[in-house]
What does this fold into?
Amino acid sequence: MPLTVAIIGNPNTGKSTLFNALTGLQVRVGNFPGVTVEKKIGRIKGTAQPIDLVDLPGTYSLSPRSLDEMVSVNVLLGRQTDVGKVDAVVCILDASNLERNFYLACQVLDLGLPTVIVLNMFDVASTRGVRIDIPALSKKLGVQVVATSAHRKEGLDALKAAIASAVPNGPGTRPHPFPETFYSECHQLASKLAGLCRSDAPSFLVERALLDVGGYLETEWLDDDNAAEQWRTALVEARTRLKDAGCRVPAIEAKARYAWAKQTLAEITTIPSARAETLSDRMDRVLTHRFAGLLIFAVLMVVVFQAIFSWAEPLMGWCEAGQSAASGFVASQLPPGTLRSLLTDGVVAGVGGVLVFLPQIGMLFLFIALLEDCGYLARAAFLMDKVMSKFGLNGKSFVPLMTSHACAIPGIMATRVIEDRRARLATILVAPLMSCSARLPVYTLFISLFVSDSPLLGLRGARQGLTLFAMYALGITAAALVAAVLRKTIFHSETPPFVMELPAYKWPSPWIVFSRVWDRMMAFVTRAGTLIFAAAIVVWAGSFFPGDHSQEFEKQRLIEAAEPIKSDLLLQEARTVEALDKLNQRISHAAWENATERDDILKLTASTQTELAKLKAKLKPFEDASDEVNHMRASLVEQSFLGWLGHLIEPIVKPLGWDWKIGVGTLLSFPARELVVTNLGIIYGLGQDVDESDQQLWSTIREAKWPDGRPVYGVPVALSIMVFFSLCAQCAATLMTIRRETNSWRWPLVTFSYMTSLAYLAALVTYQVAIRI
Amino acid sequence: MENIVPLELMAAGEVGHVVQVDGSPEVVHRLAEMGLREQVRVMMVQPGRPCIVAVGDHRLSLRMDEKAEIFVALTMDA
It folds into this structure.
């Protein structure tokens, strides 16, 4: 049986470095059920008895305000069934800042578990002149105290030995920091609670319930309404009695615990009174400066954005190339049929649809991990807080929202840094409104088709550029407004004061950065990836069934069987064209010696032209066959479930100026908006190998007509399509990521509904206004 | 005589100790957990909204709301 040891500490105490140094890469990452907290369990390397280390989120206290924070408490009390009983706890403290860190240590020791106290970053503390009498401290607390410098890998062996011997050593001395009246009130409450069918509650939780005004245990612990009411009354009465006894809750906790800390640390530590200015302070003078700081931040953001936007591009190109190679391989191994269609258009497309996001996710988290680990991310949040707080968000929302312009998926995954749950949810909900790179093909297609490139104020392409800018501005404005509305309605709360620690700068550790990027990528592939894959299969089925594909497959089979003949003919055609070009050149330069040679050349030219015409005639049936297959596919899509839905929604999309084809194209793009160009290609019978600069697609769109002969497309329709795509939640991967990050289906559903309604309304207004001016 | 001011009105470089933290019990509790509590020594590093204060050896970025306020007794000669 492996031992289970939990590891807890204040943020920025080097807990991740220590966890990584102890466990290496043997780590299982998941989510605790029902909450957004990440569960990380690793096996400690090189101990006689196997020990599993459970990483708990960095926290300043064990006082649970929400279900998320309750998880750490439940794990430590052995009430988290998926972790089981915890045998010991390791509490990591920042050796330079012992007094504040001792607040948490005091709560941890109150749990009565075998405990190891780690004084991390001991080297930094020593250089600052902090002296700690470790044996005396250990004696006073009754537990082992180990000094480490995790980033230098110092003290790790001593720590491992201490963890291994923690259980036989038993728990330490309980701090018992409160006055006796407090404990007797707790005792009374515990018996009251036993009467309310909660006889299993450990005394730690009863103490917490009494101390945490408005906390989780006060408001959401008991499901039974009647019992909950009685429980709250009992708590209020107990608190009133304590207040009368001069022991006001919750102020008593800080008072008692800090007094305990002070008393424990007296005569054991010496702290230099004068604090010298550190390098961190000097860096902060520039990096958090009102102007210089913002400028540096802006430059950094441009670099990050550019990297995600363009450096990831070649990698994504490889993914796409790999995808078409895989499809090609399947096609070469299987005859046309349902199975091949499922494999190429469903399975391979689904896997490709997951992998294609990985370069962007990896790139973003590489930057975020670097910035976070060196301490800069907190400064960035500080700098942006002024703007973000105007919309009910806080500074930590900025980086996720900025990066959502490349892709909302890493953006949403990056919201984990926002501790305030409501602000985090609001950020997640508006992130998909940012114009991500997948919207660009739609913008490009319709802007180049319908926005004139005639000069504006002497600048060519300025109108097109402005339209593109307007689309980005639309997303940002909508996000700001929606965030403000959300914070006033469903996420309404007193915006708590924004307090954030600015850790001292340090060199990022490559190991931590690597493992963060790795964790994020794996989390995406295993969790969101499976759902995205499933969505791809469902869409494939929706556009494939119930049509009869036998004729299409038969035709496709014939085309493929004749492929060698076709490519041979194409080769001949190319050669003939080349020969003809050379002949024509000689004619235009009159490059001959005499009349006989001239006649020969003219004769040869004529015969080559006839040959080319013959070849073209031979190739015609092949092209016709391809066209025929494309038309069959177009009509099969029209007959499919999704096509049927498209016709069904035609009355709904008509006010936007759309016909059923645009409707189906849009509907088919709900799994992934970048598919719209391909989908239009399929629907217009041009095949699926079209892109946004395809001339054939351009002319088809220009010539598309309503049954009464009016053209379908015009500037108003183009604008309404672009506005719709800019605001709509057409990305199954994003919705699945929201599902994973919030651990609930409610938020992806809310996102989907509000964005789709918003997109519809905005497109409606755009079209109706545009046709009238 | 002690000169007591709200923390947000401290000028850069001014030092003092917290005499009172006002606000809802939860907010006061949270601030105390992060080290911002009565008697603790604070120094204004960068005033503004949010501001940066040094609390002991920590640097905290802070934006108070209308209902919360921290009062500081300035150390005169610092």
